Design the sequence.
C-alpha cells in the first residue's frame, strides 16, 4: 500500500523483535527526505573492559564468555589468541584444529537461529517464527536440528553450550577423544543435509532489488576460510595485522547510543560479517561449496544485504563440512594445554565471530594482571552501515504506508543480524515525518 | 537413573541465581533434589530457551519453574497448565532476546512438539538486580512451591501407574 510521501506522520514501533538486545530506531523524514537515522542502543553500558582490569590473564575466557549467550566462543577465541599473543604461546596443530571445530559449532548454531527463526519470517510475511512454523514446520524443525548439532559441538569442546568453560589459555582443560568426536560427526552428516535444504529453501525467497557499495572488512588466511586466524583485509586494499587494528580503526561516541561506533579512520563506514567474509574469501571455499553458492544465485561478491541470508546459509554448509574434515583429521595433542608463563606484554587478536570480526587487545603486567582491555564487537562496527542501509531503504520506500515501511526497515536491520547485547542490547522504531 | 533413561517426570527450573528473584527456579530445584523419586529428572536452565524443546523431546510430563515480573503482588505463585493454552497475557516474561520461555512453548505447540503434559509454576518477583539474593517474599515461596511440585509429581506418577495397570 502507498502513503502520501509528504504527509506529516509519526510511525512508532515499541519493540522490533528478532534481534539480540535492546535498542531503538528513529527515522526523521521531512519534506519527502530522510533527514536523520539513529540506531540508539539504550542498553546500559556493560563495562566489560573495565571489569577485566585487575583480573588475571587466566580469567579472561570465563569473563568474556559472559558477554554474549549466542557467540561466547567468538569472545573466548579472540580472548585466548590475544592473551597467547601477549604471552608468546604457540599451540599444537590439534589444539588449533579443536578451536576451529569449536568455532564451526558456534557458526552453525548462531547462523541457523538467525536464518530460520529471526530472518526468514521477514521474507515470508510472518510476524515471527511461531506463526511461520504452522506453515513451514519442516524448515523450523531443520533449524532446531542444526542448532542442536552446533550446540553438541559447543558442549563437547566447550564443556557446555552457554557460557562455555573448557577453553583456556594455552589450549583446553580437557580435549576430546576420537570416539566422542565420532558421535558428533554422525550428527554433523545429518546436519549437513539439513543445512543444504535450508539454503535451498531460502533461495526461493523474494529479495528486494537493493545494492550497496560497501567496503568489506574481514580476515583473510593464506589457506583457509577465516575463523581464528588471518590478516585484516578490506575490499579497498587494507591489509594489516591485528596489532595494527587501532591504527586504522577508531571507535567514536554518538550522543544517542550507549554503544561505540567503530569506523575506518581514512574512509569511515565499513561492513563486517558473512557478506564481507564471503566476498573477500570466496576463493577459499571448497569447489563444491562455491558450486552450491552458484546454484542458489550467489555471485562471488554479494552487495545486496537482503541476500545475506543466503551467504549465512552457505557458511552453515561450509561449517558442517569443515567440522567433519577436522574431526576426520583429528589426532589428540601431546598435552591438552601449554602451561602459560605470565609476562608484561600487549597481545592482539581478531577472529571471525558469526557476525564479523571481533577485535581484542590486552595489556598485561609482569604477573599477568590485566592492566587494560579493549574489545570491539562486530555489531559496533556495523552500526553505521545499518544506519546507512536504513537511510537508503527508507528513502526508496518513502511513499510506503507505515506498516510496510516499518517491516522493511526491520528486515533491513536484521540483514546484519545485530547482536546489540554485545555492542553494549533492543529496539523501538520511531519514524517522524514533518 | 542414568542420563539415557527416559525420566518419568521432567522438572525444568529456569533462572539465574545471581539475578535476584530470577533465582527462584534454581532455588526450588535445590529444594526438590532428594525429595522426589529418582526417576524424576531435575534440570536447571539459564540460557537458551529454545533448548527446552530438546529437553522435553521424549515427552514425559514436564513441570517448568520460573519467575516473572510482578503483575499483582510479588511472591504470588501461579500454577499454569500450558498443555492446551498459552501463557496468559501478563504472565509471558518479556525477554530482550529472541526466544524466551513463552515463545519456545508456543513454537513447540506450532510444531506439535509439546510434551503430553506441561505445567508451570511461576512466581511474581520483586527485584532482579545483578548479584542480588532472592527477595524475602520470593524466598518464602520456595519451600511451598517445592512441596506442591513434589505432590504434583506423586499424583502424576500414581496416575501413570494406574494407567499401566488399567
Sequence:
Amino acid at each position: 500500500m502507498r502513503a502520501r510521501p509528504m504527509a506529516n506522520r509519526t510511525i512508532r514501533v515499541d519493540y522490533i523483535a528478532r534481534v539480540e538486545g535492546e535498542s531503538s530506531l528513529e527515522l526523521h523524514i521531512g519534506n519527502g527526505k530522510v533527514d536523520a537515522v539513529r540506531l540508539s542502543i539504550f542498553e546500559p553500558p556493560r563495562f566489560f573492559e573495565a571489569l577485566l582490569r585487575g583480573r588475571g590473564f587466566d580469567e579472561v575466557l570465563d569473563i568474556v564468555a559472559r558477554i554474549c549467550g549466542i557467540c561466547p566462543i567468538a569472545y573466548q577465541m579472540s580472548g585466548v589468541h590475544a592473551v597467547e599473543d601477549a604471552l608468546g604461546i604457540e599451540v599444537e596443530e590439534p589444539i588449533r584444529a579443536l578451536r576451529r571445530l569449536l568455532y564451526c559449532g558456534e557458526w552453525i548454531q548462531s547462523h541457523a537461529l538467525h536464518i530460520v527463526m529471526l530472518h526468514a519470517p521477514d521474507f515470508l510475511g510472518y510476524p515471527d517464527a511461531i506463526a511461520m512454523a504452522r506453515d513451514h514446520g519442516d524448515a523450523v524443525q531443520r533449524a532446531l536440528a542444526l542448532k542442536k548439532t552446533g550446540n553438541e559441538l559447543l558442549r563437547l569442546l566447550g564443556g557446555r553450550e552457554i557460557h562455555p568453560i573448557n577453553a583456556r589459555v594455552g589450549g583446553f582443560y580437557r580435549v576430546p577423544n576420537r570416539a566422542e568426536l565420532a558421535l558428533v560427526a554422525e550428527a554433523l552428516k545429518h546436519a549437513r543435509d539439513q543445512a543444504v535444504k535450508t539454503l535451498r529453501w531460502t533461495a526461493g525467497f523474494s529479495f528486494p532489488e537493493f545494492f550497496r557499495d560497501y567496503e568489506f572488512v574481514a580476515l583473510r588466511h593464506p589457506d583457509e576460510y577465516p575463523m581464528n586466524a588471518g590478516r585484516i583485509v578490506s575490499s579497498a586494499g587494507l591489509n594489516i595485522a591485528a596489532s595494527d587494528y587501532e591504527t586504522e580503526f577508531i571507535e567514536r561516541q554518538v550522543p544517542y547510543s550507549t554503544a561505540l561506533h567503530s569506523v575506518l579512520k581514512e574512509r569511515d563506514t565499513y561492513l563486517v560479517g558473512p557478506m564481507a567474509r564471503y566476498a573477500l574469501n570466496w576463493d577459499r571455499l571448497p569447489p563444491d561449496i562455491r558450486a552450491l553458492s552458484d546454484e542458489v544465485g550467489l555471485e562471488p561478491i554479494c552487495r545486496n544485504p537482503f541476500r545475506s541470508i543466503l551467504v549465512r546459509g552457505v557458511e552453515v554448509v561450509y561449517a558442517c563440512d569443515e567440522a567433519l574434515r577436522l574431526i576426520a583429521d583429528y589426532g589428540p595433542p601431546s598435552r591438552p594445554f601449554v602451561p602459560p608463563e605470565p609476562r608484561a606484554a600487549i597481545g592482539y587478536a581478531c577472529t571471525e565471530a558469526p557476525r564479523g570480526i571481533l577485535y581484542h587487545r590486552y595489556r598485561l603486567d609482569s604477573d599477568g594482571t590485566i592492566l587494560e582491555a579493549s574489545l570491539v564487537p562486530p555489531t559496533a562496527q556495523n552500526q553505521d552501515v545499518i544506519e546507512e542501509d536504513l537511510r537508503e531503504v527508507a528513502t526508496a520506500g518513502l511513499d510506503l504506508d507505515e506498516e510496510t515501511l516499518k517491516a522493511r526497515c526491520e528486515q533491513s536491520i536484521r540483514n546484519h543480524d545485530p547482536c546489540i547485547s554485545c555492542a553494549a542490547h533492543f529496539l523501538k522504531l520511531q519514524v517522524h515525518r514533518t | 537413573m542414568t542420563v539415557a533413561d527416559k525420566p518419568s517426570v521432567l522438572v525444568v527450573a529456569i533462572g539465574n541465581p545471581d539475578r535476584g528473584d530470577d533465582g527462584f527456579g534454581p532455588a526450588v530445584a535445590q529444594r526438590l533434589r532428594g525429595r522426589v523419586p529418582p526417576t524424576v529428572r531435575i534440570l536447571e536452565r539459564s540460557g537458551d530457551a529454545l533448548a527446552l524443546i530438546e529437553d522435553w523431546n521424549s515427552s514425559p510430563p514436564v513441570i517448568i519453574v520460573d519467575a516473572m515480573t510482578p503483575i499483582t503482588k510479588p511472591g504470588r505463585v501461579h500454577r499454569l497448565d500450558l498443555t492446551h493454552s498459552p501463557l496468559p497475557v501478563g504472565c509471558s516474561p518479556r525477554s530482550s532476546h529472541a526466544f524466551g520461555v513463552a515463545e519456545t512453548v508456543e513454537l513447540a505447540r506450532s510444531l506439535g512438539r509439546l510434551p503430553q503434559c506441561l505445567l508451570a509454576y511461576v512466581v511474581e518477583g520483586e527485584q532482579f538486580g545483578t548479584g542480588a539474593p532472592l527477595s524475602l517474599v520470593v524466598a518464602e515461596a520456595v519451600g511451598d512451591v517445592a512441596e506442591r511440585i513434589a505432590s504434583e509429581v506423586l499424583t502424576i506418577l500414581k496416575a501413570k501407574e494406574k494407567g499401566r495397570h488399567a
Notes: The radius of gyration of chain A is 21 Å. Chain A touches chain B at residues 17-22, 43, 69, 113, 117-118, 128-131, 133-134, 137, 140-141, 144, 147-148, 151, 161-163, 421, 425-426 (CB under 8 Å). Confidence is low (pLDDT under 50) at residues 11-17, 424-428 of chain A. The domain at 48-214+254-380 of chain A is CATH 1.10.645.10 (Cytochrome-c3 Hydrogenase; chain B).
